[in-house]
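Lecture 7 notes: from sequence to structure.
We start with the chain below.
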Amino acid sequence: MTDYFAFLNEPRRPWLDPDSLKGKFLELSAEIHPDRVHDAPEAEKQRAHTRYLELNAAYNCLKEPKSRLRHLLELEGTSLHGIEQMPSGSMELVLETGQLCRAVDSFLAERARVTSPLLKVEMFEVAHGWTDKLNAAQRTLNERQEEIAAELRQMNHAWEAAPVDDSARASSLPLARLDRVYRDVSYCWRCVSQIQERIAQLSF
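Predicted structure tokens for the same chain:
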């Protein structure tokens, strides 16, 4: 498995500074961009192209908390538990998001059946109300994401202090805790996607 942290010259850790990571990506991208070897032999151009694709894959993995934590857990040799094991911290958010999205879906189905211009105006006003509720849910999810980011920053200390290439490394890392946070991130990301999808549908 390719170590994307090493690929981008980043130490393994749960939280990464987005601006610093983007800076490293842009710097490496400029160095290895295939356009720099457009006059080179075909084999060298192909190597440059492959390396550039790997760089983009590394950046896309590490910039998103969900994929970054999964990659980190895999690099540390942890068997991932399925995200179906919902952490208690995510339970309430998932249930509330599901209930809200089902209510919005019912409204969208009802709106789709309306043909009267007068009722369409009324539906437009109701849609604004649902959008406000979805935006409020989005703010709650944003707060939860900020809490998760703070927890990941705190967990960086364990990775900074952990021995490298040592049999005691795994036991020195809070991998069970990281697995739980990974599942929190997964469910939170899913809720955000569901909310954003409904906001977009209401705007049509």
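Points to note: Helices lie at 4-7, 18-32, 42-63, 65-75, 88-112, 117-161, 169-172, 175-202. The chain has two domains: 4-63, 88-202.
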